[in-house]
Amino acid sequence: MLLTVCAVLPASAQQFFHLTADELRVDTLYAPQFTHVTPLPEAWRDSVYTVSVVYPEYADMRATDVANYKRIESEQPDAEPSVETHVTYDRKRASLLTTVNPVVYRDGRYKQLVSFMLRCEARAKNDVHSKAALSAGAVRADAQVNVWDTLPVAKRYAKQSVLREGRWAKISVAESGIYQLTSALVRQAGFTDINKVKIYGYGGNLINETLEAKDLVEQDDLKEVPTCEVGGKRLFYARGPVSWETETAERRTRNYYSNYGYYFLTEDTSSEPAKVDYDTFVASFYPSPTSPPLSAATKPRLEDFASGSVEFKKCSNWRWSQ
What's the confidence (pLDDT) of residue 194? Predict the structure, then answer.
C-alpha cells in the first residue's frame, strides 16, 4: 500500500501526519509505504535538503500484518523508520520525493509508525558539513542527484523535434533483430534515394517509468539510428517490445503499452545518414541486455552478412507520419 501526500512547504517546514490501521494494513503483495512530495524552488540546486522523522509514535502490528510482512520482506526492519529521498521532475518542475517505511522492530516486537512529524530543512550548500545539516536521522537529498540533475532545465529538452520539418514515414517492428532497409520499402514509403534515407527512433523496449533528468536528456527527442552497409545492404538493429535486463537474465521484460517497436524514416539531402563499421555495429547489440543471451557460436559474422546466409527481418505496417 502506498500513501502519497503532496504539499507545498517552505524551507525548514514541518507537518504532522496520522496513519490509520487500514492505511497501514500489510497485504500479501506489498508492505506499506508513506510518500510525501515537496515542490522545490527553481534554485533548488543551491541548497541541500534534509528530511527527518520527529516525534514518532508507534503501535504494535497485528499478527496477520506481521505474518504478511515476513513473507514479503526477508530482512528485519530497523528500530527507526527508514527515510529515502529523490529529486523528481514533472513538467520541468523539480520536487523532493520522500519515502518513509513505517514498519520498525522495537523492544522485540514489530511496530508501525502511526503518528509523526516530517521535518524538511533546506540549507545553503556551503553549510552542508555543519552538524546541524547532518543531524541524526536526516538524509541528504542531493546524495541522490547525479551530474544529469545539475543541468539547467532548458538543456534537458530539445529546442525542437526532428519531426517538425521534412517528410516522414513510420514503420513498426514486431521483435528485436537486424533489419534491412530495402529500396522497395523506401519507394513504398514515398522516397526515392535509399542512400539519403535516415532512420530515427528508440524502438519498443520498455523505458524507465520513473522519469529522471538522464532520461529527459537521452529520450526527449528522437535520435538517429546508425546503419551498417555490408555487401550492398543497409542494415540496422531495431528493438521490439521484449527485452532482458541483463545479458544473463532468464526472465524477459515486456512493454505492456505496445506490441511493436516504432521507427521513423525521412529522406534528407542536406547531410549523409549516420553509418558505422561492422565491428561497431555488432558491438551495439551483441551481447546486449535488450536481446536474448547469445552464445559465441551465434554471434553474427561479417561473412554471413556478405554471403546472404543471414535472413534479415522485414519492417512492416509503414504509414505516413506528417
Answer: 94
Quote the pLDDT of residue 299: 52
DSSP of 195-239: GGEEEE---SSPPPSS--HHHHHHHSS--BPPBEEETTEEEEEE-
Helix ranges (DSSP H) in the chain: 63-72, 183-188, 213-219, 278-283, 302-307
Cell digits for 47? Answer: 541548497
User: How far is it, in rounded angstroms, from Cα 97 to Cα 11?
Assistant: 15
C-alpha cell at 153: 532545465
CA distance linking residue 90 with residue 107, whole number of Å: 41
Contact at 8 Å (CB) between 139 and 85?
A: yes
**CA dist list (Å): 153 to 8, 85, 93, 98, 256:** 20, 20, 8, 22, 30
Residue type at position 8: V
Residue type, 102: P
**Does the global pTM surpass 0.85?**
no
pLDDT tens digits, 62-73: 999 999 988 888
Q: How confident is the prediction for the chain on average, in pLDDT?
A: 77
Half-sphere exposure at residue 157, Cβ-oriented, CA atoms within 13 angstroms? 9
